[in-house]
Write a sequence for this structure.
């Protein structure tokens, strides 16, 4: 069954093609899982890799999903620091607590994303260098227009995976409903890479989070023994009122944010450009229809304070490949239950992290008590990312009852 009419791509004629929009972790993990299911993925990606990106901290379940793809040796070759958990600080040095997250990694995304794309292509995925510009339903399948340096190509396929991230390719073309603004949509983040961080004795290579007022926080993630990613998240209005440029605002904020941060950042030197992202919190209620599946950030993005972005991408990629395989064995009339199951499983997992985060901002020290004292084993499982098709434990249940 051949649904992509383009001989120049050198496509396998015995496998059904699946178009994958985006060459980031959502797209490449989907492609590798689709290859295992017997499909021929075609990744549409215009950017050259390596490219700068944030979202450097992985969870244990994310690493497990990558290992299930046989990427353990490639992860080791990145020489990434090992992460045991997250340490969270308020303004005062004595007020901190640690939440274990299992055994995971911190990665510099430029190298990690390139590794993922290289592996997908080495295993048999095809790469169409271009930008998808339109997507429309045509009879029993989809037509996708891709703009390349040589001109436009129109590809036909039964199944499409949208791994476009916060660009929300499918939703912005009217194929799904409106994106609902999240609790953190009016935030702005500034971030760069720094050398000279003074790490405390207990810091190891863990993620450090420094919070101040509601929805104001700074992350510090070690990318190597000498390089760290540091980013600031504040309400947009705070930045507008400052009258400062991005570089000055980030560096001034780091210098006076809190005493625990000052102890670690007093001798830092910025070695990369300052970048910004704003209005990034949203969700789409329906994100799967007629063989079109959104994966990861293309359907929902939560404040990244607890570092689940890459996990959502690579674990949902497993579910999407299984869903497409199940659909391929049935007539179109039987697809809806498969679509519903995909959305139910993936949305329920993201709800866990959303509820966790909402409780943290409402009751930060209640959160510390629950995570560090009352339910440490349950919170370890959550922070490790084991949140798919799992019944909520007493800690999560109590947290939700408090927020209801």
């Amino acid at each position: 069954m051949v649904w992509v009419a383009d001989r120049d791509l050198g496509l396998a004629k015995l496998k059904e093609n699946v178009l994958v929009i985006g060459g980031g972790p959502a797209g490449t993990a989907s492609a590798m899982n689709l290859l295992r299911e017997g499909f021929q993925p075609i990744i549409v990606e215009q950017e050259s890799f390596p490219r700068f990106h944030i979202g450097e901290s992985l969870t244990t379940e994310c690493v497990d999903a990558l290992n299930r793809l046989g990427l353990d040796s490639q992860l080791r070759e990145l020489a990434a620091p090992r992460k045991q958990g997250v340490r969270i600080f308020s303004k005062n040095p004595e007020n901190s607590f640690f939440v274990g997250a299992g055994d995971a990694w911190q990665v510099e995304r430029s190298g990690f994303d390139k590794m993922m794309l290289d592996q997908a292509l080495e295993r048999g995925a095809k790469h169409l260098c271009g930008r998808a510009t339109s997507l429309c339903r045509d009879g029993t399948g989809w037509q996708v227009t891709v703009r390349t340096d040589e001109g436009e190509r129109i590809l036909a396929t039964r199944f499409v995976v949208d791994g476009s991230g916060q660009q929300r390719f499918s939703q912005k073309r009217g194929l799904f409903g409106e994106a609902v603004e999240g609790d953190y949509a009016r935030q702005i983040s500034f971030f760069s890479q720094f050398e000279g961080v003074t790490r405390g004795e207990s810091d190891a290579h863990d993620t450090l989070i420094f919070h101040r007022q509601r929805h104001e926080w700074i992350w510090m993630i070690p990318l190597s023994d000498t390089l760290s990613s540091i980013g600031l998240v504040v309400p947009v209005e705070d930045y507008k009122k400052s009258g400062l440029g991005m570089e000055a605002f980030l560096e001034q904020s780091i210098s006076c944010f809190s005493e625990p941060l000052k102890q670690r950042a007093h001798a830092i030197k910025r070695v990369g450009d300052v970048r910004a992202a704003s209005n990034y919190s949203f969700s789409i209620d329906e994100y799967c229809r007629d063989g079109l599946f959104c994966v990861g950030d293309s359907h929902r993005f939560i404040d990244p304070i607890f570092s689940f972005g890459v996990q959502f991408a690579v674990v949902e990629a497993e579910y999407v490949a299984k869903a497409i395989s199940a659909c391929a064995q049935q007539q179109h009339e039987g697809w809806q239950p498969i679509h519903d199951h995909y959305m139910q499983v993936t949305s329920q997992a993201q709800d866990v992290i959303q509820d966790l985060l909402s409780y943290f901002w409402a009751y930060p020290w209640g959160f510390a008590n629950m995570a560090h004292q009352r339910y440490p084993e349950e919170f370890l499982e959550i922070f490790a990312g084991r949140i798919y098709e799992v019944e909520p434990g007493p800690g999560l249940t109590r947290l939700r009852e408090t927020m209801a």
Observations:
- The longest strand covers residues 96-105.
- The chain has two domains: 7-54+112-181+283-403, 79-106+185-278.
- The radius of gyration is 21 Å.
